[in-house]
Write a structure and sequence with these properties.
heterodimer, A: about 160 residues, alpha+beta, Alpha-Beta Plaits, 4-stranded antiparallel sheet, two-stranded antiparallel sheet, 6 strands, about 20% strand, B: about 400 residues, Aspartate Aminotransferase, domain 2, 7-stranded mixed sheet, 3-stranded antiparallel sheet
Chain lengths: ~160, ~400
């Protein structure tokens, strides 16, 4: 992976100037590279990783992983029906999967009712959707490479040779 | 009770900055740039191997030399990485960190009164351990030569009683390292006088601007070199205490004799984990190295910009800026900075008298802490400057 991406993946707020300093490049060079990554879709967006367990009255407090079995369409295969599913704002992620089902859809909702009604009233009703299995997420331990824990105390002694 | 400790121990110089260290340890909310170990936790694959070995019931002694599996792995690792040929059977010993390796090496080669050349500023233990082994450390001040030992100065320091030299590169505390040409020139002097070179290369894998060349790999120098290295720095394994010594058969046999009576063997859990490190940690190790390199660029530039001139260190995770301009001594600077801004650094004098006028800053800290700490140092310098006006 290019090192600019490595820096940004750790700290999305690092400015081109800061990145240029640590990589010994010119700021303009970094700016151009980032622009190129953004244009090519290598960098899709910048966001904060939030530990939602610590945030109260959250609109998207509950996550469910839904296995979806679908009947592929002629000419379009899975893509067309996937598009119809991932276009719903409730869908946070959508993957085509090998194995016993076809799509893995991650849905976010306020509570169990909002998620269930999305599955019952929208997802299951789509023609080509043959069946669904819903798993509610109980606890998040690690997300996008970040372990979701309170800051740990420093284990090193403060000064040593 | 009188005379409870031996004369030898009484003569050992206590570290002059112990009081300063105690001050740091007693304070809360300090950002410490005084730490001599990685801020990363040991990569998980290595920790997991340690846990697994415990689950499997590996809780016994190992052979004195160390687990064969680990020595064999090391032998292959050194061959692949540095083209070094060391037999796992006769030319290798697993030690409790480089610290033990250094002690064994010195005790093995020194006859009473033998001299050992130590370029300074240097790691704190070289002098005292040499003395404990009955030797006489001969310090060479390197501050005028960009902290490098030059062949000329080495030549000058040698006399009939000189037995060897301790060469540490990349160097703690200065971060400097040597290119091949410089090493070859030093090697010539060592061969000419038939000295033993004890090489502490524990920071070797953390070399950023050029390839690290082990001294033992230079033409004709294998027989004159005791190559000391360990897992602490490159694999972030300081607390596991695993190092190794490679060298000529007779020297390793001598070192093993002392080791078997004093240490017996390195803890088996640590050896098991270290064996895994050699094969299963390439990616995290390279990631750590890149992170250190980025921090180095940031810290060196910031320090120079705020007027603390420092060279660009080629390895380890230390910078050694000059603070003479502030009019403070190393210790005064460190104490004042700690009290006023709660930033801890190590006074240069901890690494020998020639370290006066310098401080050691470790960048084995997160980028966040480094930014905050350097901001505080800048503020501190501003105040000193204004007070002078």
């Amino acid at each position: 992976m290019k090192e600019i991406l490595e820096v940004l993946e750790k700290d999305g707020r690092a400015t081109p100037e800061e990145i240029a300093r640590v990589l010994k490049k010119k700021p303009q060079e970094v700016r151009n590279a980032i622009k190129k990554y953004e244009k090519e879709g290598v960098i899709l967006k910048y966001k904060a990783v939030i530990n939602k367990d610590l945030v109260k009255d959250e609109d998207r407090g509950l996550r469910a992983l839904i296995e979806v079995n679908i009947i592929p369409q002629k000419d379009a295969g899975f893509d067309k029906i996937a598009e119809r599913i991932y276009s719903f704002p409730e869908v946070a992620s959508c993957y085509l999967i090998s194995g016993t089902y076809d799509l893995l859809v991650i849905v976010e909702g306020k509570n169990i009712h909002t998620v269930s009604s999305f599955v019952a009233e929208k997802l299951s009703c789509l023609e080509n959707v043959r069946g669904t299995t819903t798993h509610f997420l109980l606890k998040k331990y690690k997300e996008d490479g970040v372990i979701l824990k309170h800051r740990e105390e420093n284990k090193r002694i403060a000064i040593s040779y | 009770m009188k005379n409870v400790t031996s004369k030898k121990v009484e003569q050992m110089q206590p570290s002059g900055i112990r009081a300063f260290f105690d001050l740091v340890l007693g304070m809360k909310d300090v950002i410490s740039l005084g730490v001599g170990e990685p801020d990363f936790v040991t990569p998980w694959a290595i920790r997991e191997a340690g846990i697994y070995s415990l689950e499997q019931g590996f809780t016994s002694y190992t052979s004195n030399k160390g687990l064969y599996k680990l020595r064999l792995g090391l032998s292959r690792y050194l061959k692949a990485k540095h083209e070094l040929d060391y037999s796992p059977d006769e030319e290798m010993l697993i030690t409790v960190g480089v610290s033990e390796g250094l002690d064994l090496a010195l005790r093995t080669i020194i006859n009473p009164g033998d001299k050992i050349v130590v370029p300074q500023p240097s790691y704190v233990s070289y002098g005292p351990v040499t003395e404990l082994a009955g030797g006489l450390p001969i310090y060479i001040d390197t501050t005028k030569d960009d902290f490098r030992l030059t062949p000329e100065k080495l030549e000058k320091a040698i006399d009939k009683r000189t037995r060897g030299i301790i060469l540490n590169y990349p160097t703690n505390p200065t971060g400097i390292s040597y290119r091949k040409k410089e090493l070859v020139a030093l090697g010539r002097v060592i061969l000419k006088h038939r000295l033993i070179c004890i090489c502490d290369e524990v920071y070797g894998d953390l070399t950023y601007d050029f390839e690290h060349i082990p001294f033992a790999g230079l033409d004709g120098l294998k027989e004159n070199t005791i190559y000391l290295n360990g897992f602490s720095k490159s694999f972030a394994m300081t607390g596991w205490r695993v190092g190794f010594a490679c060298g000529p058969k007779d020297i390793i046999a001598g070192m093993t004799k002392i080791h078997q009576y004093t240490i017996m063997c390195v803890p088996i859990t640590s050896q098991m984990a270290a064996a895994e490190a050699l094969v299963g940690a390439k990616k995290p190790v390279e990631e750590m190295k890149r992170e250190y390199r980025r921090r180095r660029a940031f810290v060196v530039e910031e320090l120079n910009q705020m007027g603390l001139s420092c060279h660009n260190p080629q390895g380890a995770f230390y910078v050694f800026p000059l603070i003479k301009k502030t009019g403070l001594s190393s210790l005064e600077f460190s104490q004042k900075l700690l009290k006023e801004e709660k930033v801890a650094v190590v006074p240069g004098t901890a690494f020998g008298a020639s370290g006066e006028g310098y401080i050691r800053i470790s960048y084995a800290s997160s980028m966040e802490s480094l930014k905050e700490a350097l901001e505080r140092i800048k503020r501190f310098l501003g105040r000193i400057k204004n007070a002078k006006k």
